[in-house]
Design brief:
mainly alpha, 3-stranded mixed sheet, 54% helix, binds zinc ion
């Protein structure tokens, strides 16, 4: 009555090999080395959806890239530096120092958001881990927002 593993083997090996295009792109670019950061992955995914970004704009906060016509500023926030709720773990040593630094970063993020909103911009902050998990989903979200905003204006 025992079911042997052999019957499932082909299925199992097939499923281990299945990656979404986004995951595969991520893995491949990851192997290419240190240059491919999450913001670059996201930027090219957005570009593939037809969005045309700029890297620099004369606005507060140094966003990773921006969409001028819809005034959307994209920030890819690192899980550690911006203390994401999923991955951030306080370092064991110098806890006080890191805690203060984290709070300073968060306060600065919020100040930048407020300054951008005051100038008619939308600060769009995405987590590094979301980009790594599914860059295309994040890019689609950005594309919707950018197109929606372009229509409004
Ligand atoms: Zn995270």
């Amino acid at each position: 009555m025992t079911k042997k593993a052999t019957s499932n083997e082909s299925e199992a090996s097939a499923s281990t090999d299945v990656l979404t295009p986004a995951q595969r792109a991520f893995c491949m670019s990851h192997n290419r080395g240190k240059d491919t950061k999450p913001e670059i992955l996201l930027r090219s995914a957005c570009h593939a959806l037809g969005l045309r970004h700029r890297l620099k704009a004369n606005i507060p906060g140094r966003p990773d890239f921006v969409y001028m016509s819809s005034k959307v500023a994209v920030f890819v926030d690192g899980c550690f530096w911006h203390a994401c709720p999923v991955h951030y773990q306080a370092p064991k040593t110098r806890a006080e120092f890191w805690n203060e630094k984290r709070q300073r970063n968060r306060a600065r993020d919020e100040a930048v958001n407020a300054q951008l909103i005051a100038r008619g911009w939308i600060p769009l902050r995405v987590w590094e881990h979301d980009v790594k998990a599914d860059v295309e989903a994040v890019a689609c979200h950005i594309a919707e927002l950018v197109r929606e905003r372009s229509r409004e204006r």
